[in-house]
Amino acid sequence: ILRQTFTDFEILLVDDGSPDRSGEICDGLSLVNTRIRTIHQENGGVTSARAKGVTHACGEWICFVDSDDTLPSDALERLSEGIHPKTDIVIGFWDERKIVKQQWMDIEEYRKACITGKKIYPGPCARLFRRSIFNKNTFDIPRVIVKGEDMLMNIRLSFTTVKDVRIVPYKVYN
Predict the structure, then answer these.
(1) What is the model's pTM?
(2) What does the alpha-carbon distance between residue 67 and residue 26 come to, in Å, rounded to a whole number?
């Protein structure tokens, strides 16, 4: 993430009660790079960690990156090309074979795609979300749901906006 060509961003590392040295590693990174902040919490699961990150975010746009994933070096630059006043969600791709060339998707089509998983990946990765569309219900997902919880979050976000979705035709997630 630190190798991005787009450099105007903050990184929030959420240590979700990790029993290994992850928290210490995050703290060390926060000390050497002012764009990184570490947040420690008791283990609450991925949904809780995402909620904590959004709560502490300062920027207008949110991008989720799971701890075992990476971003191509131009990912944030490519996604930022899709930022537009007429959208709250910008989507890119994680699989080059699934890239579509259309630039916009109306919100109804996007909602259906989130629910069915057709056309686009149903999870929150490879996207930018305007921070203002998050609300108290976004992360109100029972912790017992451990598979598909990210799809539920993404569906909820799609119903908190009436704006169409901007598509950037690039691979922006590994």
Answers:
(1) 0.94
(2) 11
- Listed in order, strand segments (DSSP E) in the chain are 11-16, 36-41, 61-62, 89-93, 104-105, 127-130, 165-171
Q: Which amino acid is at 47?
A: T
20-61: pLDDT as tens digits: 999 999 999 999 999 999 999 999 999 999 999 999 999 999
Residue with tokens 């899709």: 82
Report DSSP state, residue 159.
Answer: T
Query: What CA–CA distances, in Å, run from 57 to 101, 137, 143?
Result: 31, 17, 22
* CA 24 to each of CA 19, 30, 31, 47: distance values in angstroms, whole numbers, following the listed order: 11, 10, 11, 22
Report yes or no: 46 and 149 within 8 Å, Cβ to Cβ: yes
Burial class (CB in 10 A: 0-12, 13-18, 19+), 58: exposed
Instruction: Decide: 26 and 97 in contact? Cβ < 8 Å.
Output: no
